[in-house]
Amino acid sequence: MHSSLSMSRRSLLRAGACLALCALSPPGRASPSAVREIRIVAAPTSAPLTGKGEVDVWAYGGQIPGSELRLRQGEPVRIVVENRLEQDTTVHWHGIRLPNAMDGVPGLTQPPIRPGESFVYEFTPPDAGTFWYHPHANSLEQLGRGLAGALIVDEAEPIPVDRDLLWVLADWRIDESGQIWPGFGNMMEAGMSGRVGNTVTLNGAVPADQPVRAGERIRLRLLNSSLARIMALRLEGHDPVIIARDGQPCDPHVIEGGRLLLGPAMRVDLLIDMQGEPGRRYQVTDEFYEGLGYELTGFAYSNELALRTTALDPLRLLPNPLSEPDLANALRHELTLEGGMMSLMMGGGMMHGMRGMSGMGQAVWSINGTSMTGDGHAGMKPLFALEREGSHLITIRNQTRWWHPMHLHGFSFRVLTRNGSSVPHNQWADTVLLAPEDAVEIAFVADNPGDWMLHCHVTDHQMAGLMTVLRV
C-alpha cells in the first residue's frame, strides 16, 4: 500500500512537472528522444580532506565535491538520484528556475527519497551560469558531511577565455581523531554564527598553489558550499572583474574595496587577466573574521614567457531570459528577520516575540514573528501569496546582530537597494547577504507557480527558524 501510494504521488508530480516544463522550455531545442539522462548516487565514502588520512564523508558520485554536472542552456535533462544513505534525502538544484515539483523540498514539493530508493528530476535549465546542488533533508548534517556538487550550465557559445576554472570552497569541523565532529545542531551555535569549521578545502582537498601563466585570461567560478562560513577573498596583485553573480550576468565591474564577500550558497564568476610576473607567487587570502585571516591559496606563475602582452578587450556575458520587474507598479512586501542569541537574551527569553513555530526543533529565529524549523514538510503555511505574473518588491530587514545569506527558491531577483542606496551594476541573485541591521530591496516577476522556500543559508539558522514559504 505504501509503495503504491508513493508511485502514485510521484507520477502526479512528474506529470505536473512535464506541463510546467512546456511553459519554461524554449520550443524546438530538443525532442523527447534527445533528453540526456544522468545518474547520481548519494552514499557514504571517504576523502582526504585534511591531507592526513581519509575522512568518512557522504558524497555524490563517490567524490568531494560531488560529481560536477555540466548541462546546456535550454536543453532538457533527466537526473536520477539514488539514495544509499541510511536516512531520507532529496536534492535541491540551487538557483535553477525549474518547476516546483522538481525543487527538492521534502513534503512541500516531493516525497523524500527513502533509503534504497530513487527519484527522477526532470527540468530544462533556462539560464546559463554557475549553480549547485545539495540536499534539503536533514540538510545540516548531510551538507556538513559532504553532500554538495557544482552544476554548470554552459552558454550556447563558449566565451573567449583561455581556461574555465571552478573553485568549490567548503569548511569542515574536524575533531581530534581526524573525522567530522558529529555535534550537529548545537543550539548555541544556531543562535550565533552557525557551525563554522576549522578546516577549509578547495575542490575537496587542502588548498595547493594554483598554477597560472602570465598573460592568460581565466574565468574563475567561485562557489561557497560551507554550512556557515562567510568569506572575504582578496587576490593579491590582481584586479579581477565580476561578470556574474549566482549564475546571472551583471555589468562587469571590479571588486569594491578589493575584498569579495561570499556567503554560504553564493557564487561569483570572475574574469581575471593574469598580469603577474613570471616566476612569482601571489596570495589569495580570506579576511572575513577579524583577527582570523588566513591564506587560502596562491597563484603560482610559471617561468614561461607571457601568453600575450597586449590588453584584451572587456568581456560581457549575454543576459539570461529573466523577466524585468515593473517597479512602478510592483506590489510591496516586507520581511523582518529577528532573533539570535544576543537579541533574544536581551529580549527576555529564547522564544520572546515568536509564534507559530512549525516543524521539528527549537526556534531561535523568526521571519515576521513566525518561525519554521527544519527542512520543509507537508502543510507548511505560506507567509503570504504573490500574484502570479505580477511584479513584486520585497524589503528584507535584518534586525539581528548576525549575518544572513537569504535564499529564495525558484527565482532570481534583482537586487535594487541596500540601506537606501542603489545597488549598481545591474545585479541579479538568488541569495543576498545581509549584514547586521541591513535593509535590502529585491524585485522579481512571480512567473513560476508553486510554494517556494525562502530561508537563511547559514544552515543552522534555517533549521532553527529562519525559514518561510511564499506562494505564487
Automatic annotation (TrEMBL):
The chain positions of domain Plastocyanin-like read 49-156, 194-284, 381-471
Q: Pfam families of this UniProt entry?
A: Cu-oxidase (PF00394), Cu-oxidase_2 (PF07731), Cu-oxidase_3 (PF07732)
**Keywords of the record:** Metal-binding, Oxidoreductase, Signal
**Is Signal included in the keywords of this UniProt record?**
yes
Checking InterPro entries in the record gives: Cu-oxidase-like_N, Cu-oxidase_2nd, Cu-oxidase_C, Cu-oxidase_fam, Cu_oxidase_CS, Cu_oxidase_Cu_BS, Cupredoxin, TAT_signal
Superkingdom as given in the UniProt entry: Bacteria
Where is the signal peptide, in residue numbers?
Answer: 1-30
Q: Any keyword Metal-binding?
A: yes
The terms under GO molecular function for this entry are:
copper ion binding; oxidoreductase activity
Specify the protein name. Answer: Multicopper oxidase family protein
**Origin species:** Mesorhizobium waimense
